[in-house]
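Input/output pair, single chain:
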Amino acid sequence: MAKRVRTTDAARDEDREKWMARFQVRLATQPGVDRAVVLQAVKDVTAHCALTGEQPRTAFGDPDAYAVQAAARLVPTNRTARAKRHDSLLDTLESIGRRAQDIAGL
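Output:
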């Protein structure tokens, strides 16, 4: 019976690790999110789960959706807007580069 408990614990650990990995990746792709924001969000999730004994999926739901919520909560609005403008500018420059290559026949 002890083996079954270890197996269940291992499954919980694996689910927690997968949830955290997905959360971190999704959070890092949000506008305005830097390393400090990711570290703070991971710290918040870890502390909550340690305090309550809950699994991240149970406490916070889908990691993608929670990453969006965490970014909205932790990233200042002006930094988010600046990052979106920057990303838009990069997309425009990439589009111009592709068009120039098409014209040049490269």
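Residues 96 and 102 are 10 Å apart (CA to CA). The first helix runs from residue 2 to 28.
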